[in-house]
Write a structure and sequence with these properties.
The structure is a single chain. β1 (2-8), α1 (21-30) and β2 (33-39) form a beta-alpha-beta unit. This protein is of the alpha+beta class. α6 packs across α8. The protein folds into two domains: 2-122, 3-Layer(aba) Sandwich (Rossmann fold); 130-272, Sandwich (Tumour Suppressor Smad4), CATH 2.60.200. Strands 10-9-8-7-12-13 form a six-stranded antiparallel β-sheet. Strands 2-1-3-4 form a four-stranded parallel β-sheet, with helices on both faces. A four-stranded antiparallel β-sheet has the order 6-5-14-11. It has nine helices and 14 strands.
């Protein structure tokens, strides 16, 4: 019998995932798969590594938002645990799951997991931390970190948009580096923001919005929200490389997959095909 470990965040999104647990357990049981639960803690889940080594599963499922996926990826990659990763998006923003289109039909996705369908994908690295979706900095990053968790749980993505409308007058530079879901941190629901980029090409994609007028910023924001490419718009810079160095004149916080990252300057590099993902 196949064994999978479910690494789940009980408070992600609207804190309602635990109400779906029975359905998920039944869905995998119906497919002849034993699902073993690991409930994440707010601070520190390093014992998850020992848990995996004891259980010896065939794969891992991360259930939560982008931050939960980020933590799970770091635990796997840092400890050289080459286990396939499945993603059950249940957070406020589920960018990577959205790009892979695995949230559209969960029964079909569970079939793909049962069949062992995987694709190897790149991850990014900043110092000792890894990211699978995006590293970003600038105004939008600050907005995402300033949104109160209670407001985010109550209003979902609308909480981000409210903050964006309040902060638009700052017109600060924003940069993002990562996969095809790469977008400004406050607007992480876009499917594509640029053409000819992929999660397994060994390259990072940098998208930067220059300091611009409010009308220009709102136009770019509108396209991001609508899921339209913005890389060729005036005021937007798109570059590809295996490594980027990003610096700022003023003190600036970074963001890795929606989680607080180190202060700039950053050296960002890609680790080609570092992880296998069920998709």
């Amino acid at each position: 019998m196949q064994k999978l470990v479910l690494f789940y965040n009980p408070v992600s999104g609207h804190a309602a995932f635990k109400n779906k647990l029975d359905w998920i357990v039944e869905a995998f049981q119906r497919r002849g798969i034993l699902l073993i639960l690991y409930r994440t803690k707010k601070e520190g889940n390093e014992d998850f590594v020992d848990f995996l080594q004891e259980v010896k599963p065939d794969g891992v499922l991360a259930a939560g938002g982008d931050g939960t996926v980020h933590e799970c990826v770091n635990l796997l990659v840092k400890n050289q645990l080459d286990l396939p990763l499945g993603i059950i998006g249940s957070g406020t923003s589920n960018d990577f799951a959205t790009y892979l289109k695995i949230n559209e039909d969960m029964e079909d996705y569970f079939d793909k997991i049962a069949a062992g369908n995987v694709r190897r994908m790149d991850v990014g690295r900043v110092g000792e931390q890894y990211f699978i979706n995006v590293a970003s900095a600038g105004m939008m990053t600050c907005i995402a970190h300033e949104v109160d968790r209670r407001l985010k749980n109550a209003l979902g993505k609308m909480a981000y948009y409210l903050k964006v409308s309040i902060a638009a007058g700052k017109m600060a530079i924003a940069v993002a580096v990562g996969s095809p879901t790469v977008a400004l941190t406050a607007l992480r629901d876009t499917k594509n923001v640029a053409k000819d980029i992929a999660v397994d090409d060994g390259m990072l994609d940098l998208l930067a919005i220059k300091k611009c007028s409010i009308p220009q910023l709102m136009s770019i924001t509108a396209d991001l929200v609508a899921g339209r490419p913005v890389a060729e718009k005036d005021g937007v810079l798109h570059l590809q490389a295996k490594t980027f160095q990003v610096a700022a004149v003023e003190k600036m916080q970074s963001d890795l997959d929606g989680e607080v990252g180190p202060l700039l300057p950053l050296t960002i590099e890609t680790i080609p095909q570092a992880i296998a993902v069920y998709c």
